[in-house]
Design goal:
The structure is a homodimer. Chain A contains ten helices and 17 strands. By secondary structure, chain A is an alpha/beta fold. Chain A has two domains: 123 residues, Lyase, Ornithine Decarboxylase, Chain A, domain 1 (Beta Barrel), CATH 2.40.37.20; 208 residues, Alpha-Beta Barrel (TIM Barrel), CATH 3.20.20.10. In chain A, strands 1, 10, 11, 12, 13, 14, 15, 16 and 17 form a nine-stranded mixed sheet that branches. The longest helix of chain A has 17 residues. Chain A is elongated. In chain A, 56% of the residues are buried.
Chain lengths: 349, 349
């Protein structure tokens, strides 16, 4: 079936571009001796995770237990879950996962470390725990190298746990210095830092400049999106993911309405106004959205679309888009080659 | 099971409040002789649609074909799909639906009307088509009463179609005048307007003041959200939907990180800053989100939460939130009573 025969709205992935992106990241990190641990939150598809591992990734990164469970069941052997796992039920699930594959997690507090330690020691397991470091994003993470070293020692001394290293997001010069200082503090106490995990798609080309960071987590590089284009991290032709929509209304000379809104493109917006880049009308602006409609201003376009015309959109942010759909369609040279289930989406936890 | 035993993040619905909201809207519209046609995009759950119809709704409103198909299969007899249905495959699905239940749709252009007419006439069916009118929202819709009357006549004269009336969103004084003027134009030509459909949750209390609008479509009234609270349309105690999350990190004195981010609360924002109202800490601000984390500023709160504490959040916009989960959990007096599948979510089209 040709891509033009698919009903809209539909999320498509160009398989040639996808494969090039997977191989490209691996080659770059291999060339610099950096471990590749791609983040699967972007695709949530076991088949793509398997492609990434087959290409040379040492394992994957997941952002929630449910994702890790699906990926482990699909045969992924090494899973990093950079999350503070809390509560009896979640710890029991983490124990079950740790029995089936090589798991590692993060923590940024003693209270979380104590919970992990009790669960793992009771199960007779050893879990690798990295210290999450806040190096400027103001999310989770200890606030200073001194705090990081202190928590690392607590982990190292906790039954059932192994101090697995340091983690932050994204890689940066500041992160590099934070890790360096923490490593020095720990080495003075005879504790080695075996793994330091950084990441992001828009720092891939700089990864080799951060000599304290041994592992790279990138997610969006497989699909690309308007954010990565705006960051100059990817080009339009590097973007494998496109949302195909149809113009369903042309109420005025300049206004067009498409059959994709916030439940298709998500509401994520970054610096550039609008809700995505329309490839056939790059000057057009998706100025607002209702849930199943996008509202487009075509006033800057010389030619305006007809009702029924199909448009290809690079969304602002690819991760929430695939999370909105149960399936994405793999395309090669314009023909449908496969349909992937977005197996990790919609999970309650 | 008590609600406190559920793993987080989880979307819960208080069933007592839900039932009160369903009964309340019905009683208000009944008292004023206005037809109730609730919009199911908010919940996407056949069981709730059945509750709405049992309470007296004349039918439901859906926003996409996939939703209508799920609802028709669940036994809903009267479905309004205010959408321009375009393309052979979608028209074939609409024909199939029209054979199984009382369908009506909208159109705002002759090209869409021609497609509907050809499909219905060929199938030997008659479909009710309303004219969608843009009364200020700048989405779909004809731009003037003259255009509306013109398109109504085209529908009335088209094989396989029946002119079903006028539709707009939301109800307003301007909509009322638009409908009045269109009705006069059509009556002069001997065409009667049998049904006029308006809507929105925050105009429920005003519905009886728009005497040209015979049918009301409301969606969010069943769940409520921060937007409706900000509009003074609903109170906190009217909100049946709450997202329960856990504090997983307290990196600084004032910062707390919760286990719900943009893939739980959605990225929809309205006038009030932040990504939801935390009931236990109403002064707190969810100032930003990553996909599985919400970043909260507790500086305005006298007491700050501990790691592991559970919080109840009224999200900014309830519709995209339930769309992100495969299940919502029905609670009565703190105990889990049922789990509903969000049956219409994730559908490709």
């Amino acid at each position: 079936m040709h891509v033009d025969e698919l009903e809209t709205p539909v999320v498509t992935v160009d398989l040639d571009i996808l494969e090039t992106n997977i191989a490209g990241l691996q080659a770059h990190l291999d060339a610099h001796g950096i471990a590749n641990r791609p983040h699967i939150k972007t695709h949530k598809i076991p088949e793509i995770a398997q492609m990434q591992v087959k290409q040379g990734a040492i394992g994957i990164t997941c952002q929630k237990l449910g994702e890790a469970e699906v990926m482990a069941k699909a045969g992924i052997q090494d899973i990093f879950l950079p999350y503070n796992i809390i509560g009896e039920k979640k710890l029991a699930r983490l124990v079950a996962l740790t029995r089936t594959c090589r798991m590692s997690v993060t923590s940024d507090s003693e209270i979380v470390v104590r919970g992990l330690s009790a669960a793992m020691a009771q199960a007779g397991l050893t879990l690798s725990v990295l210290v999450e470091c806040d190096t400027g994003m103001q999310r989770c993470g200890v606030q200073s190298p001194a705090e990081a070293a202190k928590l690392a020692k607590v982990i190292a001394e906790s039954p059932g746990l192994h101090f697995g290293g340091l983690m932050t997001y994204p890689s940066s010069e500041r992160a590099n210095l934070f890790f360096q200082e923490t490593r020095k503090l720990l080495e003075a106490d005879g504790i080695s830092v075996e793994r330091t995990s950084g990441g992001s798609t828009n720092t891939i080309q700089l990864a080799q400049t951060f000599d304290e960071i041994t592992e790279h987590r990138a997610g969006e590089y497989i699909y690309g999106d308007r954010y990565q284009i705006d960051c100059d991290a990817m080009k339009v032709e590097d973007c494998s993911l496109k949302v195909i929509v149809t113009v369903v209304s042309r109420p005025t000379e300049n206004r067009g309405i498409i059959d994709g809104g916030s439940k298709t493109l998500s509401s994520d917006v970054f610096k550039t106004p609008g809700h995505g880049l329309i490839l056939e009308y790059p000057e057009a602006v998706i100025y607002s959205q209702s849930e199943e409609h996008g509202h487009v201003d075509f006033s800057a376009c010389e030619r305006k679309p007809e009702i029924g015309e199909r448009l290809s959109i690079i969304p602002n942010h690819c991760c929430p888009v695939t999370n909105l759909f149960d399936q994405v369609v793999g395309i090669r040279k314009g023909e449908v080659e496969l349909v992937w289930q977005v197996a990790c989406r919609g999970l309650v936890q």
